[in-house]
Amino acid sequence: MDIDLARSWVQAIAAAVDQHKDYLTQLDSAIGDADHGINMHRGFSAVTTAVANMEADIVGAVLVKAGTTLISSVGGASGPLYGSAFRAIGKALDAPTADPQQFAAALAAGLQSVQKLGAAAPGDKTMIDAYAPAVAAFQLQVDSGGDFAAAAGAAADAAKEGMRATTPLQARKGRSSYLGARSVGHQDPGATSTALIFRALAETVAR
Ligand code: ADP
Ligand code: MG
User: Fold this and answer.
1) Does the structure show a pLDDT above 90 at 31?
2) Ligand 1, from 22, 27, 78: best to mutate by most atoms within 8 Å of Cβ?
3) Domain ranges in the chain?
């Protein structure tokens, strides 16, 4: 990954969020407060502007900038959580390019930072349920000799599977946990946006 690819990734996320804004909000209206699409859209629109013309000499600068922008522009829980993830991913990538092994480690650092901030574990029906399997799948592909495209494709598939698997779960973290057993039977909005983020990565790398 280089600086242009990092920039293309966050722009592809913004495009996907734009396209799925109403869907994300609809999911959040079932078990939350109907603002996830709005939050993500506000955040990634600001990110697109912020990274468009910035000067960068390391890959991570673009992603740190994306994270900082999310934190400052999104009011909901997802802003600080995704913001900390992108900042941690970016901080781990302190060179002009990153190979798949370095990127795998950066994704893991991002996951760790979300878990540190939000204290959610796999199975709590949050973005972690898509993010954790995506990181594991990316690492597994890299370890078995897969290139960036193969790893990103595997991560996107795993995130989608994790997203789908949130439906039967009862929420134990975040706003949806207030619903108790009534959160069962609905797909988690944040796991859904995480699946979009990894699909955007796979599509950007494959281009
Ligand atoms: P809010 O809940 O403040 O309205 P959003 O609607 O933007 O924020 O985001 C909701 C999503 O955030 C949830 O679907 C869930 O995936 C994620 N989330 C909430 N709390 C946590 C947490 N503690 N750890 C990880 N993810 C969380
Ligand atoms: Mg919400």
Assistant:
1) yes
2) 78
3) 3-206
